[in-house]
Amino acid sequence: MNISGFTFIRNGINLKYPFVESIQSILPICDEIVVAVGNSEDATREYVRNIHPTKIKIIDTVWDDTLRTGGKILAQQTNVAFDAINGEWGFYLQGDEVVHENDLDKILNDARKYLNNKNVNGLLFNYFHFYGNYNYIAKPGTRGTYPYEVRLIRNNKMIRSFQDAQGFRMFASNYPRPQRFNVKKSNAYIFHYGKVRGPMDELERAKEFHKLWHDDKHIDRMMGNAKTFNYSPDYPLQIFTGSHPKVMQRRITETNWDFKYNPSMVNTSSGHKVLNLLEHTTGLRPFSFRNYNLIK
Fold first, then answer.
1. Is the entire prediction scored with pTM above 0.85?
2. Conformation bin of residue 62: beta by default, left when phi > 0, alpha when psi is -120 to 50
């Protein structure tokens, strides 16, 4: 059985993405990792090339900067990398997603277990969403983040990255619309270091990120006069009590800002408050967006 990693990145150094750590985290269980490296203004390509002498396969890409709706360029770049993999499974990570070394055997065992079960087209992972710094995560059971997502998929080219590349759907000529496909639940976690930069770096990342959805006028209205990032999450946070992946230790040690969480900074909509209460009291999660069919 072969597993191919795949991902994309552009300007990863300037935007402080832990893309090297992300790739390194799954390197031990991957036979190759395909990286679509976009036209960058920094040394991103060199950093990717130096990760491993034989396992890294780079595809140079040029992003269409006029494609500024729905984050579609992210899915397009994901598919470029996926189309080049050779393994029976494809392990997808985005540039701010990392896997803990303690979970690698779980993932490998699940991949072997379901390899010949053609009814299973992917593995669904749990998520830790970090916010502010490396000490806080989104409180489980709250809206505003996704608690699970598919990150290991069968190498079936009818599977495509969907919308803004959060997940995948099955596309085929005989389907009237993109279809959810069957997945099994993994006990492994994705460590999503999405908003852990210092306030100035996080502002720059946010500006670049929003360019994938909005025009410059909209971004100026949102944050044109801002000097630093406004840490006001849409969801409550809690202290993270676990251990971080070893590949992240240097980056965490070099943290040079202090984020203090105050529940009053949370900007949860009234609708999400009702849904959060419902989930906490009943365990039900209605109206939740899913890219998959979870099978027992």
1. yes
2. beta
Q: How far apart are CA 121 and CA 171, in angstroms?
A: 13
Give the separation between CA 111 and CA 119, rounded to whole angstroms: 13
| Cα gap 255→207, rounded to integer Å | 22
Q: Residue 191: is it exposed, middle or buried by C-beta count within 10 angstroms (0-12/13-18/19+)? A: buried
- Tokens at residue 140, please? 């489980």
Express each pLDDT in 186-195 by its tens digit. Answer: 999 999 999 9
Question: CA-CA distance, 175 to 158, in Å (whole number)?
Answer: 11
d(CA 85, CA 155): 8
The arrangement of secondary structure in 1-296, i.e. its CATH architecture, is: Alpha-Beta Complex (3.90)
Write the pLDDT tens digit of every residue in 56-110: 999 999 999 888 888 999 999 999 999 999 999 999 999 999 999 999 999 999 9
